[in-house]
Design goal:
heterodimer; A: Aconitase, domain 4; 4-stranded antiparallel sheet; 4-stranded parallel sheet; B: 474 residues; alpha/beta; Aconitase, domain 3; 5-stranded parallel sheet; 17 helices; 19 strands; globular; binds iron/sulfur cluster; amino-acid biosynthesis (chain A); LeuD (chain A); 3-isopropylmalate dehydratase small subunit (chain A); 3-isopropylmalate dehydratase activity (chain A)
Chain lengths: 216, 474
């Protein structure tokens, strides 16, 4: 996973609440097979709007090169689709600042080198103001601080383990397999004794013996 | 084993959590063992790829069942896959399941259906188990007293490789339901009303337990509808403690335990409940007796009102953010403040999805449309949540009732809930839908969704507009 230490960039302002993952990445593109290249479909309907009205923020310079996005409350609610995060990453976004997040989206960010930051009240307003003024900000994960052009600094909180993982680009699966394998095996054995019905034996799996295969 | 635990009681969620804790890390998170994983075509390809790239085996093939539900066509289904990207995605799932030894249920199989409908039907979903799926509506399975939640594709890969997830415990929230639903009012109205009250962020960070006297009377189908939309209230987890209804539903299901094991398991399930002295971080009470049927008017599930109401006016909203959001919703939905909801004309009706595509839902909707006709110009489709639901409905003659009324009767799948196959709204079309999300573009680019119960959708089909099902004399 890509490491995250600091990111300096203008922040794209998207001061709306309840932007769901269907808006971030519409369902019909979920048929696309790869993680790469999904940035083209990011906020597809907003970016490819027909008719007049201002262009979507991520289509307007300098925000088309933004690595930070500032949204309102409940960003990334709804569908669990990790494509929403892959699309943001592919577009170049490394950090999303919002008043709150959909929980699955929030967890997905950390798996893909994106830092989601929860800010509320005056802190959120201050960052949004910087974004709207197109003044670059610096997000420093080492210090857990956001620095503004005028020298002001806003602190933020992030879970210790997730911070460490992002800073070092750690791979969670690798870590679990190296550090916790014995405990997992022991747990599994205990569960097999205590609740054997949670392991499907050959007698139960026989229910699937007559499954056909789809012919393409 | 801290002191607290011996001093106050545990909730249902605490108990299942404790039973699955492999280890605690020093930062307060835990490694949680996952008993069951439902695998679908949208969130699994990248996870299988990851496993392959690492050269790792899939740890426990017996803990997974794979099915393609999102992208499958719901009509003219033959042994041949659809063409294009959808076909590619499905055949990729077939190949992955074969390579890693996971049972794959083909779309023409009698066991096919939406993951959240077939898990319970198979008895794959069991009380006291941890169950995940790369799909946010995995909370549906909490209706059985399972700890079930949606995950992302990366976490699917973690499950494949380790059968565990590093998780932080949620806070606990209890929603206590009192009273008895009135005629024409459904459990969907309870959950829509709850979301309207607490908001789509109301459950953030919390595991919800639904409890109270009104729960005891609900069927498993109804409990699944309730838990299904916990995610629309912001919570990944919604659960109901198992009781006689749960145990009766599961007995004899193909993957449920039998004989002595059944006796052991069902005895454990009987005791799996929140202790009387357990403390919740948040309590919400709802009297369901006075509820009216609800419909959504906006583009987030909290933008929902009783069908007797009028479209709200953003100008009267104090909060600037909300005002902006409401105005945007109304513009997208093509609605004017002050319009009576019951005057809103519709073009399409969708009865189905993991929220309301079960046999009871179809029975209830069929009872409304029986001996009636869909209004002129309205197109309605009924998409059973699974092949088993479809076959049961056909055995009861429900397909004939729907067809006689002018509905199309389809094969199982997600269909127009998510518009990944060719069942979708055209831009500007307005749909009365029994699904769970009214997001912009959810049912097709530019499509407009009104969420409601199956009887309300059936009534809307007959009237050609949103209407109070209670006014349809039966
Ligand atoms: S029916 Fe809709 S909500 Fe349910 S799993 Fe399918 S797409 Fe998701």
């Amino acid at each position: 996973m890509q490491k995250f230490t600091t990111v300096s960039s203008v922040a794209a302002p998207l001061p709306e609440s309840s932007i769901d993952t269907d808006v971030i990445f519409p369902a019909r593109f979920l048929l696309l097979p790869d993680k790469k290249g999904l940035g083209a479909q990011l906020f597809h309907e907003r970016r490819h709007k027909t008719g007049d009205g201002p262009a979507f923020v991520l289509d307007r310079p300098p925000y088309d090169g933004a690595q930070i996005l500032v949204a309102g409350a409940a960003f990334g609610t709804g569908s669990s689709r990790e494509q929403a995060v892959w699309a943001l990453a592919d577009f170049g976004i490394r950090c999303v600042i919002a008043e709150s997040f959909g929980e699955i989206f929030f967890a997905n960010c950390f798996k893909n080198g994106i830092l989601p930051i929860v800010l509320t009240g005056p802190d959120h307003a201050a960052v949004l103001a910087e974004a709207e003024a197109a003044r670059p900000i610096e997000v420093d994960l080492e210090r857990c601080e956001i620095g503004m052009a005028d020298g002001a600094v806003i602190g933020f909180e992030v879970d210790a383990h997730r911070r460490r993982s992002l800073l070092n680009g750690l791979d969670e699966i690798g870590m679990i397999l190296t550090d916790d394998a014995a405990e997992i095996a022991a747990f599994e054995e205990r569960q097999r004794q205590l609740r054997p019905w949670l392991h499907l034996g050959p007698d139960k799996l026989a229910h699937f013996a007559d499954l056909g295969e789809e012919i393409s | 084993m801290g002191m607290e635990r011996t001093m106050t009681g545990q909730t249902l969620y605490d108990k299942i959590w404790d039973n699955h804790r492999v280890k605690d890390y020093d930062d307060g998170s835990s490694l949680l063992y996952i008993d069951r994983h439902l695998v679908q075509e949208v969130s699994s390809p990248q996870a299988f790829d990851g496993l392959r790239e690492r050269g790792l085996p899939l740890r426990r093939p017996d803990a997974h069942v794979a099915v393609a539900d999102h992208a499958v066509p719901t009509r003219l289904r033959s042994q041949h896959l659809p063409g294009g990207l959808a076909g590619d995605q499905i055949s990729r799932l077939v190949r992955n399941a074969r390579e890693f030894g996971v049972p794959y249920i083909p779309m023409n199989d009698r066991r096919h259906g939406i993951v959240h409908v077939i898990g319970p039907e198979l008895g794959f979903t069991l009380p006291g188990a941890t169950l995940v799926c790369g799909d946010s509506h995995t909370c549906t399975h909490g209706a059985f007293g399972a700890l079930a939640f949606g995950i992302g594709a990366s976490e699917c890969e973690t499950i494949f490789a380790t059968q565990t997830l590093r998780q932080r415990k949620q806070k606990r929230m209890r929603v206590t339901l009192h009273g008895r639903l009135g005629t024409g009012v459904a459990v969907k109205d309870i959950i829509l009303a709850l979301i309207a009250e607490i908001g789509t962020g109301g459950g953030f960070g919390h595991a919800i337990e639904f409890a109270g006297p009104a729960i005891a009377e609900l069927s498993m189908e109804a409990r699944m509808t309730l838990c299904n939309m916990s995610i629309e209230a912001g919570s990944r987890v919604g659960m109901v403690a198992p009781d006689e209804t749960t145990i009766t539903y599961l007995k004899g299901r193909p993957l449920a335990p039998e004989g002595d094991l059944w006796m052991r398991a069902s005895a454990e399930w009987q005791d799996l409940r929140t202790d009387p002295d357990a403390v919740f971080d948040r309590e919400v009470d709802l009297d369901v007796s006075a509820l009216a049927p609800h419909v959504s008017w906006g583009t987030t599930p909290e933008e929902t009102l009783p069908v007797t109401a009028t479209i709200p006016d953003p100008a009267l909203e104090q909060d600037a953010g909300k005002r902006f959001r409401m105005a945007r919703s109304l513009a997208y939905m093509g609605l004017e403040p002050g319009t009576r909801l019951a005057d809103v004309q519709i073009d399409r009706v969708f009865i189905g999805s993991c929220t309301n595509g079960r046999i009871e839902d179809l029975r209830n909707a069929a009872a409304i449309v029986k001996d009636r006709r869909i209004a002129g110009g309205v197109v309605g489709i009924v998409v059973p949540g699974s092949a088993s639901v479809r076959l049961q409905a056909e055995a009861e003659g429900l397909d004939k009732v729907f067809r006689a009324a002018g509905f199309e009767w389809r094969d199982s799948g997600c269909s127009m809930c998510v518009a990944m196959n060719d069942d979708r709204l055209a831009a500007g079309e307005r749909c009365a839908s029994t699904s769970n999300r009214n997001f912009e573009g959810r049912q097709g680019q530019g499509g407009r969704t009104h969420l409601m119960s199956p009887v309300m959708a059936a009534a809307a089909a007959i009237a050609g507009r949103l209407t109070d099902v209670r006014n349809l004399a039966s």
